[in-house]
Specification:
The protein has 231 residues and is mainly α. It contains eleven helices and no strands.
Length: 231
Amino acid sequence: MSVSLRYRGYPERLSRTIRKGFPEQQGRATVSGSTAGAEGRERAPRRMRTDARRNIDSLLDAAKTVFGTTGVDAPAKEITDLAGVGVGTLYRHFPQRSDLIKAVIEREIDACADAAPVLAAAHEPWTALTKWLDRFTAFVATKRGFAAALHSGDPAFDGLPGYLVQKLGPALGSLLDAAAASGEIKADISAQDLLYAVAKLCAPIPDEEPDYGQRMVALLVDGLRSGESPR
């Protein structure tokens, strides 16, 4: 599958992404003084208009749906029709297909990370962990063409590996810690290793059903249990 810079291709597994680990943090220089502060205020970007934010949200929702069903080679108009906006609006906010792909993936990563404390508050540790892993598995398994786009050499995707691990590593780690403290799972399970394992198992395999990876993840999750009665 070829991936061009402009609206062709879309990232399908995350295994190589996760293995890249954390990117180096780039420091930001700060300038002190009242003059610098005034300049900073003058250069501060204006707040995005409500209608622009609404259009972006609609486009991201539509792109997520289209990418998950039709695939990443779907015409841009299919996305804009579903979003209820013009093609010009799409290109204004996301000039390159890679810009849209990146935004959709980061949004999904954020949602997956945000789900961890919600599940932890609503369920026992083991149930919260398994429900979160189900969600992450669905996220990985439905991103058709993700690997192809990610490894296309497009610099727009350079920050995704670290972003994914930085957001999902702590989210999963908190669930693992709670389940280990309750005695329901082994205590030496690495969040990053588990993220990588799930992504690897979700890699498409020829002649297998689409849910094959999810069945394999279910076996992996069952193997997390400590074999002891929860405390």
